Amino acid sequence: MIVSFAEKMLRLEEMVETLTLEGLGVGGESICAHFGQLTHGFRFSHYDPPLNKETGISMVPHRDDTMTTAILQHEVEGLEVRVEDGRWVAVPPEPGTITFVAGEQFTVVTNGRVKACDHRVRTPSNRERYAMLFGRKRQDGVAVTVLNDLVDADHPLMYRPLKHEEYSMFRYTPEASKFDDPLEAYCGVQKDGDGARV
Ligand SMILES: O=C(O)CCC(=O)C(=O)O
Ligand SMILES: [Fe+2]
């Protein structure tokens, strides 16, 4: 059963990614080649009632290190996403709904056109909570690169190839926490006088 569920999730994820990439003008062959370099996995999460009853926060704001993450919330609320004006918006745990959040790898692939989604878990009702997550990311050993279709005179290359295993080690270091955007700091193409890492 879990295998057939995973297959369906994969098909759905491919559909969401395809629509997004096609919408940005990426051709079918590039999308196929990109999909050929991905892998996927499931995670199940259980949250005790939040330790801090006042804030209700049980997962701090973060960006995923995936291409995309599909999130299924089971009955109890919690997922919140940060929208453009900085407000946090709750995503209700409606039965049968799946929320897709873009991860940092998708920002690289789309040459910065799709920003990774800031999200967190906050459960004001202080209830125990379950969620299921289906993530898609680049296979180990294969760097994440910008899709050529998304680089042109109006959209210069924004990211060098991202060695994602190395980045995940850097990502949680004290050095990385100094940056608002550690991805940019790690593999952003150097702009005038800006101190991006090589
Ligand atoms: O539980 C959720 O709704 C989201 C969890 C999450 O963002 C994560 O595990 O990265
Ligand atoms: Fe997340």
From TrEMBL:
Fe2OG dioxygenase domain span: 38-139
Lineage: superkingdom: Eukaryota
Classification via InterPro entries: IPNS-like_FE2OG_OXY (IPR044861), IPNS-like_sf (IPR027443), Iron_ascorbate_oxido_reductase (IPR050231), Oxoglu/Fe-dep_dioxygenase_dom (IPR005123)
PROSITE patterns per the UniProt record, alphabetical: FE2OG_OXY (PS51471)
Pfam (any one): 2OG-FeII_Oxy
Protein name in the entry: Fe2OG dioxygenase domain-containing protein
